[in-house]
Amino acid sequence: MSNENNLKNDNRLLVKDVIELMLALPQLSPVNYFKVNKDNVSSQLIFDRSNEVDAGLIRLSGKDEIMVSATIVMERLLRISPQAATELALAQLIRKIYCFGAEVSAYDIVITNVNMSSPYHMEMVDGIKEGCSRISRKFNIPMSHQKTLFTCDPQTLDQMPSLVLNGLGVLSKEDDFVTSRFKTKGNNIYLLGNSIEDTQGSLFQKYVLQEKWDSLMRFDLDVEIKLKKVLEGLVSNKMIETANPMHRGGLFFSLLRAGYESGFGFDITTDMAVTPEAFLFGEYLGRVIVSVSPDKDDAFVDYMTSINQPFCTLGHVTKGEIRIDDQSYGYIDKDYSEVEQK
Question: Is 194 exposed, middle or buried (0-12, 13-18, 19+ CB in 10 A)?
Fold first, then answer.
């Protein structure tokens, strides 16, 4: 049965097929293949819980603060709208840092494969610079270099420019650290933000639907700014156990990454207002996954209601089983490396 027929006739079969198809993509593997052994120097500097988040955590020598670094590469959507794609990528980068309880301090950018003799390339550079300026103003976060850094290799002049973003933040107190890895069976899982019918710009759109990327995923900068303030309030009030900055692969793969290292699964219910593929695999912004311990559940719900933050209950953390809409999809400790591209 084709993917198109699955979309029309059997959403549950679609979900199973999509999961196995997308797990074969290297960028969605939950396994970190490149763990580096610590040497004597780095062992003294690396924050003890660095394996609990998808960011770099370095303990500043002689201080209580912990430096947080994160990197995002944007290439696939730059050609659609350089400015909007830059704003989108920077919003993702900022969210990736503040979800761990850190305050974002600054960011750097490098644009690769720039042919400065190409009007099209230089137009893209101008759009990237405008995107950076707007994000800096909106979030009040500076670019640490007051110039745009380029790389150019004559052998790659026929390639499209890529944008490399690196963000830095500071975790002032170790007690404010928030892991992205599930920690406790039975914790409730919530989705902050609205669910919408959108798979534009997603890996699902390209590799499952095999459609050309011709528009960006849904993105509202004002929503991102509010979401940042909401997370800061949740962290300072210690209402959440974990926070996961949803990104590549959508909600399902963000949950998978949250559970894989710790061995926990999840039991969730999809939103009937949107299709399962948009809910599970759409990569639109404005959403964060959090888990809350049962004893703080009432306080969390009251807080979300008091600040008018859209949210919904996804489900709960399991001992290892993955369940979606009362159907089992196996266990988190499955050897995903054996999944083959179909």
Answer: middle
What mean pLDDT is predicted for residues 174-193?
92
Question: pTM above 0.90?
Answer: no
DSSP per-residue codes, 126-171: HHHHHHHHHHHHHHT--BSSSS-EE---GGGTTSPPEEEEEEEEEE
CA 240 to chain centre: 18
pLDDT in tens, 196-215: 999 999 999 999 999 988 88
CA 79 to chain centroid, in Å, comes to 21
CA-wise closest residue to 217 among 18, 71, 27, 74: 74
- Give, in degrees to the nearest 5, the angle at Cα 332 between 329 and 337: 95
Q: Provide the 3-class DSSP secondary structure of residue 208.
A: coil
More confident residue, 37 or 113: 113
In order of their start, the domains of the chain are 3-31+179-338 (3.90.650.10), 54-176 (3.30.1330.10)
Q: Are 45 and 65 in contact (CB under 8 A)?
A: no
What residue type is assigned to position 174 of the chain? E
265: tokens are 């699964």
Order the strands of the 56-59 sheet from edge to edge: 56-59, 66-74, 162-171, 103-112, 149-150
Residue bearing the bigger pLDDT, 54 or 173: 173
CB-based contacts of 302-306 (< 8 A; 24+ apart in sequence): 303/233, 303/234, 303/237, 303/239, 304/192, 304/230
d(CA 98, CA 169): 8
